[in-house]
Amino acid sequence: MENQSRQIAMVFDLNKCIGCQTCSVACKVLWSRDEGSDYHWWCTVNTIPGKGSPKDWEKMGGGYDKGKLILGHVPEKEEYGGGWDFNYNEVFYGEADSRKPLRVVGEQPTWGPNWDEDQGGGQYPNSYYYYLPRLCNHCTHPACVEACPSGAMSKRTQDGIVVRDDEKCQGDRKCAAACPYKKIYFNYQKGISQHCIMCYPRLEDGVAPACARQCPGRLVFVGYLDDENGPIHKLVNQWKVAVPLHPEYGTQPNIFYVPPIAPKPINEDGSINEDKNRIPAALLEEQFGPDVHQALATLQTEMKKTKEGGQSDLMDLLIAYEWKELFSEFTVDPVDIEQAGQE
Hints:
Elements: E1 8-13, H1 22-31, E2 44-48, E3 64-65, E4 68-69, H2 77-80, E5 85-86, H3 88-93, E6 104-105, E7 130-134, H4 143-147, E8 153-155, E9 162-164, H5 174-178, E10 185-187, E11 192-194, H6 200-204, H7 210-213, E12 220-224, H8 231-238, E13 243-244, E14 255-258, H9 281-288, H10 291-307, H11 313-319
Parallel strand pairs: 1-14
Antiparallel strand pairs: 1-12, 2-7, 3-4, 5-6, 8-9, 10-11, 13-14
């Protein structure tokens, strides 16, 4: 991007994620409660292996092929899925002598953001899965920006966040076709597309994004890639244990992941197989590219060092004993921000 000065990024440590969906709800409550955004979940936590949201998004195309923009499938509302409607009014506000039990009403969905949660893969006793939080990657080479015919989308020069001008958006949905991660939603009431903006109004006030700040597991790091003293640079560039999702899509995403380390598999006699990994290496490489193997090797080396009584700067960084270590310069408490109109 021209005149790009800095790039903000996030790292999710998948070894800490418990799939609680707190990040999803924090984002939903803050950003997508308006008319037409009922099915919008800008941040979702999918179970891997699984079809994710929208359903089978990894097969929908988009991104770049040898530098050439590729337009893929545009997901429809049903493919993102949603929740159920219940007879709340009848249950809570009906006549006392005629109240009925809670039941599902109306059309029932056939998919949802966490439809296949916890199903995973493998066979007992060596079943496996891991959780994968997903949001807009605010890519260095965003296919959505190039594909937008109205110039509504752009990449902020001061921090690399991808934003859109709702007044310019004409609802062509070329952005959704071009995004290989399918993290752009369409508002059918407003006739415009919408997506995660990495909580940039919070960042401008020194507050970490809602998904990161609300995470109870302290697994989300936020900062600039060029800040050599910050956690993002250390995890991505120094230790190289944080890798992007599907780097082969060619957009150079700026959401990174510390890959999961599962328990060792169990042999038929009940002993532990120390020579193999429960999560197939091929699956991890398919998700995160070939660099995932070196990332895992580094993690295991540093873990072994601490188990033997040694000290590891990497393990100390990932543990995050103090929550402020996660967010570099974005440690302002939201309650301390002076609100507009207040003295």
